[in-house]
Amino acid sequence: RQGLATELAAALTRVGFEVDGVGRLEIHCDPENHASAGVPRRLGYTHEATLRADMARPDGTFRPTMIWTMLAAELAGSTASRKRVEAYDCVGTRLL
After folding, report:
1. Which residues contact 13 (CB under 8 A, 6 or more apart)?
2. CA distance 90 to 37
């Protein structure tokens, strides 16, 4: 509860769009994990779907999965775009 997951997801979002040039990103989470579901919500992702009985639990039962998405064109208006991020390539050249 210190914002680390949100900070990491914001950094990965910016790198995905700004460095790798992807057109769409997804975050999947368990809807019963309210803290995890709050991460994409805070960053400006859109809840696109909840898949029923999608993932197997260790006890053999199944749980749903929430799918949150963001398109490249939505980054500029999102909270993720306002997060300070530094990204470097493998030889130390700054990318962001």
Report:
1. 25, 43, 70, 75, 78, 80
2. 32
- Contact status, residue 5 vs residue 83, Cβ threshold 8 Å: no
Are 45 and 71 a contacting pair, CB within 8 Å? no
Task: Take residue 85 and report the two structure tokens written for it.
Answer: 């991020």
The gap from C-alpha 31 to its chain's centroid, in whole angstroms, comes to: 14
Of 62, 63, 28, 64, nearest to 48 by C-alpha is 28
Helix (H, G, I), strand (E, B) or coil at 50: strand
Q: What angle do CA 3, 36, 16 make, to 5 degrees?
A: 75
Instruction: For 40-93, write each residue's pLDDT tens digit.
Output: 999 999 999 999 999 999 999 999 999 999 999 999 999 999 988 889 999 999
